[in-house]
Design goal:
The chain has 199 residues and is of the alpha/beta class. Strands 1-7-6-2-5-3-4 form a 7-stranded mixed β-sheet, sandwiched between helices. It starts with a helix and ends with a helix. The protein is 44% helix and 16% strand. It has a single domain, classed as Glycerol-3-phosphate (1)-acyltransferase (3-Layer(aba) Sandwich), CATH 3.40.1130. It is built from 7 helices and 7 strands.
Length: 199
């Protein structure tokens, strides 16, 4: 079901034009790893998933999205699993750790709606990578965020950064690596802006 839906969505997105993808060769040839992508709407989730085909991404998604029966069914078919952002406990690590141990790819969108949520999500990505001993791949997206912007053919861009390897499992170092992740994401967004100017 994942591949069926993902390839249908890929064809759907092609109708609105080509996405410019940069530095995808920085990705490891296979999992496990964590992808931390900037997030401004639902379209970036689809673009990221279709660009990585045939590799599958297991997305962490806020639990509120699973309250709707149809949406919950679709998200689960797309390998998404719910996370309680307001009360993240030890159980939050169980699913991603299990998936990573099987060589899978975890997708996290650490750009929350509030500043404190952004920090918590970025630290969550670092914590998962620490516990599973896998790299984090920073990714930045700019482009359409909704159907209206898709129909207006707003140009999409996706850029991959170099893998970040967590060299320490100390809790005290999480802030340090969280800052590194933040800096990498900001730098990738600046590179997209430069490429827009050149293009």
């Amino acid at each position: 079901m994942y591949y069926f839906i993902a390839y249908i969505l890929k064809i759907f997105l092609r109708v609105f034009g080509k996405i410019d993808v940069y530095n995808i060769k920085t990705l490891p040839t296979n999992g496990p790893y964590v992808i931390a992508c900037t997030h401004t709407g639902w379209v970036d989730v689809i673009y990221l998933g279709t660009i990585l085909l045939p590799s599958k991404i297991h997305y962490m998604a806020k639990k509120q999205l699973f309250y709707n029966g149809i949406l919950s069914w679709l998200l689960k078919k797309l390998n998404a699993f719910p996370v309680d952002r307001n009360n993240p406990g030890p159980s939050v690590l169980k699913i991603p750790k299990r998936l990573l141990s099987k060589g899978e790819i975890i997708g996290i969108f650490p750009s929350g709606t509030r500043t404190n949520e952004q920090i918590a999500l970025k630290q969550g990505a670092i914590t998962i990578a620490q516990h599973s001993n896998v790299p984090i791949i920073p990714v930045a997206y700019q482009g359409p965020d909704n159907l209206k912007e898709l129909f207006l053919r707003k140009k999409p861009y996706l850029i991959f950064g170099e893998p970040i390897y967590i060299t320490s499992k100390d809790k005290e170092r999480r802030t340090h690596f969280t800052n590194i992740l933040e800096q990498n994401l900001n730098e990738l967004e600046r590179k997209i802006s430069k490429n827009k100017e050149v293009g």
